[in-house]
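Entry type: protein chain
Record version: 2
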Amino acid sequence: MRKRNHVLAAVVAAVTAAVAGVAGCDAVGGDSASPSGRAVKPSPTPVWDRSPESIVAVGDSITRGFDACGILTDCPEASWATGSREDVDSLAVRLLGRTRAAERSWNYARTGARMADVPGQMARAVARSPELVTVMAGANDACRDSADEMTSVAAFRTSFEEAMRTLRGALPKAQVYVSSVPDLKRLWSQGRTNLLGKQVWKLGICPSMLDDADALDAAANLRRATVQKRVEDYNRVLREVCARDERCRFDGGAVYAYRFGTDQLSHWDWFHPSVDGQARLAEIAYRTVTAKET
């Protein structure tokens, strides 16, 4: 009997020790010591949510899908941000699925808008309480009747900062995807190879860059270089302002750097993205939004 009691006591002691050990492991957290004696810190919750559940788009004619489906008309169903067309596979569809994208995405971009218009669009956007806002604006700030009429870099910055303040004042945790301004000089170099495109440009499409498309004299080259420098300055502003906000992601200049060809340009105006061009913009946005934090 005494031997049996000793065995029973040993079993109880072993079970008690095992239970205590499991409880000790479960209790480790914060800066508590682990069983090995080393401090264990909890994994931080990522600031960026790669699966937002609602989207609002703000910006200009590119986000409205202008001239993607027909001449001189918006085609929001082809929008890279919120469109429903299968051949575009928009950011909203990729993130939300087709059914939920129709219910949980909104497009407040406007054809002809400049960055000065974005704060007002953002005010409309916050009423939807979106988890993600996409911003693409700046092409119209550079595309003026002349290079002298382009929006100044300072004014561009002021407007973008105001838009971000409008968002943050209402939705401090909303995320923002910011697209770089496209390469307008590449647009000139690609579109000028098409005779029809050059004729359409004469109607007044982005004169600061596209006017007199075949001119290669010093004055024309200087004008185009001035516009190109302004676009690069706009992109620097977008990067800098976005970098100050932990819930903002700039595309890193991916849209600006994309080596598009004539297949990605609308064959109505040889300026706006075609359906294929819209699909490429959607791809860039999706990669940026879903990228893991480094």
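Comment: Strands lie at 55-59, 105-107, 132-136, 175-178, 248-250.
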